[in-house]
Fold these 2 entries.
Entry 1:
Amino acid sequence: MSERFDEDLKRAASEAAGEPRGEVRARALEAMVAGGRERPASPLRRLPTALGAVLVVSALAFAPYSASSRSPGMQTALATQAFAAEALAASPEQGAGGQARRENLPEDLMGYAERAPEFVREHYPDDPEMLMAAALLTRDVSEAVRLSKAAVDRSGSGAAWAAYAWAVMETVPGYCRPANWPVDPGDREAVAEARREIAESGVPGALSPQAAAPVLDVLSEWQQVEPQNAAPIAVEVYYLYGLHRDEEALERWEEGALLPDVDSHSQEILAGSARLLAEMGMSPFDALSSSLGHVWRFSGISTFRASARIGLYEGRLARLEGRPEEAVRWWMATIEFGRHMQQSATTLIEYLGGTGMEGLGASPVWVWQRDSVTGIPGGPLLDGRLFYGPEHEFFVRVVGSDLDREIRDSRVRAVVHSMLAREYFRDQQALAVPQLAATILRGFSMWYAALLVVFLLVFVAVSLWARQKADEATSLGWCGCLIIGVLALAPVTAGFAITWFELGESGVWPGLAIVTFGGLSISLVAMLLVPLIAAFQSRRAEARLVTAWRGNLRRVLPIALVLLAVLSLGLGLAARKAAAERARDWMAETEMDRVVRAMGAEWVEPEIPPDAWRAEYPREAKS
Amino acid sequence: MGELDLAQLRAGAPAAAEASLLAGLREHSPEACAELYDRFALSIHRFAATRLAGDAGAAEEVVVETMAWVVRDIRRFNPRRSTLAAWVYGIARRRVMLEIRRRKRLKSVPAEAQVSADEIGDLSDGLDVAKRTTARLEARRKVAALRGVLLKIEFEVLVLSCVEELSAREVAQVIGRSERAVHSILHRARKKARERLVGDE
């Protein structure tokens, strides 16, 4: 029965269909041999696909380049510059300079350091700013001397002389006396131990006149160019002390303490370094960030601090040897030097160097002591207070209590300012705001790129087999695909918009993680789920739901990929532009101007905690 | 070429011969293309015409496009996943679906009512044109009636299985369903079709 039905049906179907005409065979054979469809596709039909592919590849290639920008490094660079000089000054072998400083350049600057001299000679042979910057960047000390000398010859500015002085200083061997160690001259055993260790270290205890002559000549020339600048004097004192010309060193130290300005030209050095690195190919923001990270090495501030230690030690020595007036002269000159440096500072490192110098000079009279038992809650001074220094009684007896009070109050104010400056470093808001826009743009550019990769993998996965069947299983039009693509990306884009407006000037927002990851997750799920839902409506009658879903994904995902590529690329480029603009804005004013502006009244009139000092000698600090 | 020969060609091609055919198709050799055409053209034409309500012109276009696509995509054919017949019918089926979609956008005279002018003029075999035309129209009405009572998928499975004589496994590969589903659909289709034909008779 069944066989008869089949035969009847087959007969009817054959009869109804007939046979193809003869010419059909020829046409079919021609098409088959040609190896393509009868109607070849127009090349223009491929253009949108090609453009989309170019966009996607460009976005994927740009993403790692964009991620390599080091905007978070700004915080690290500032913190490094602020505190590293102290660490360097604490090392006696590196008291003034040393080749080791050049050799310890960060890894990412090594290549630039190698190329800098040749680059500047080729492109900027007569630009003193570039010559100066190259001198400070190169790892070859003799090259640094030549380049900085060329800068001096072309401009003769104080900044060029400063760069020349820093370069020449590195040709002078180091020396070490107990004052550089440092050690209390009243502790004979400690002094003997220090002398022994210095001898064992091989670092000479004195400089030879021939070795010191070049740097002294440069410093003398520099001071003639800038007679009101005490910076060359501060360095000269260090070398005079190395030549054991102690009396002359004290006189020069006092002369320098009278001058109102202590300018190491670190601001100009920073600007020159950033400009050179940018010209050599670094992005402007990265150039500024790198410069902040390394410029402190050449600011001479560690030498100023070394001279301050000399003042402290020699004053103490004079006190012990019954030369009270000389002791006071050393300490007061050191305090004045520190105050002037704070007042004239253009960079934060200069300012903090000044507070450190003032602290050293005042430490025989007033000493900062960690006071864990009775810390001051609620104020900026959370970890200690001022107590009498070891020579407080002597000092008051010699110079009077008025000067003692003045030193005390100045010291407290300097400590408060130093704490505020450290808060400025640690305060994410203060640091993030300058590059906040770039950070947000870059962050979301990366998130869009990540989504791009995920969706690309999904597209490849659904296209691995039976593509044609999937494509023909759905009737979803391109308009519907566009709507689905845009809707699926709406959550992550909304997250970006909310983040942009919420972070604003604050730089901190607790909801950031929720909005960012929430938006990403919803977009990811939506891109997979919405085409599935659409498949219920759009699939052909004969098609399976899963096949129609794959077909929908194959239509929706390319649109989403192109949108993501455009967003990722666009935001990445916008981030670079924003960072470059911020770098330019950053250099438009000095760092201290920014600090004062950021801290506002808190800096100009700092709150002095009432319990900032105790009129007593410090107790043993309890652990 | 007679149907028996066609059936033998479709059903029983030895593996070596098929491998040779596939190799020739990859090279776009005229001989291989001719062999492919001779093997499948009539069946595909019948299948397409049945699905397209007897529209011979559209069925011929489906034949040409199917043959061209088969050769163009021959490198994607995997003999371990399906037979060559199932693969070719799958391509033909998609071309038919495209044609149906395209037709929905156009107004046309129903194919059942058409009689090709070429056929009326074709007297080479000496048969009575009127008798032949009548027989064809009658066959088309039967097929159309069957199409009217069956679901699209039932009609398709019935045609592939009973008319084109594909195995259940091949039908499953063509339409993208399981073999069990094919058996079930076929059983339902036959039952309905038998009831309809018995009713007519």
Entry 2:
Amino acid sequence: MDDLIQDLTRGNVTEVKVVLASIVAVLAVYQVLLMAVGYGKLRLPFLKPKAASFAHRSIGDTIALITLLVAFMCWGYFEFSDGIEHALPGEEGRVLLHVIAGTALVGVLIFKIIVVRWWRSLGRFLPFLGLTVLGLFMLTWFSSAADYLWGG
Amino acid sequence: MSDGEPARPIQLLGSILVAVAIVAITIALVTAKIGPDVYTRERAEELQDQIEERQELLEERRESREELLEERNENN
């Protein structure tokens, strides 16, 4: 599994993860703005709620795929226990937070998609689920990619 | 959630294009921050090592030449 991921990323596993994670984190913010328009909370003359909702669904499917790809790379290459075990001194807390937030993110995102597509009776919880997904994206990104980019 | 109006294709397309632009800008900013990839970095280090070896070799040759000149001067 390690070799496959190394080959796919040409040896730049962390760098590819950082780029992809940054993309989905920024798009997550955009997604919230789209649904603010979709729910009528934000009124824009050039974007109607239905178009915003459709765009949210289309972009959301892409974000979900990229997120699962990043999760696969993370779990497959760094693994849960290995990542925490081999963290640098003083970094164990940050790595643990990243593992928990990242895993929760995948779970909540999948649950949200299930609610949207099949479990519509829980539709009233979608705004809460969406904001939770955003929060988990930010937490996961800050605990890894942001640290890599600015933490040294 | 929706106001009963049909989705406008051009608005949908515009929203998606904005997302594409966001992706492009993010990639540009993050890759600029990360720097060259691992192969480029390794190649740059190899080249640096080669330059240092060459400089050491030139230094050794210069020292040998100077020693030889000194010996000749002493003999003369």
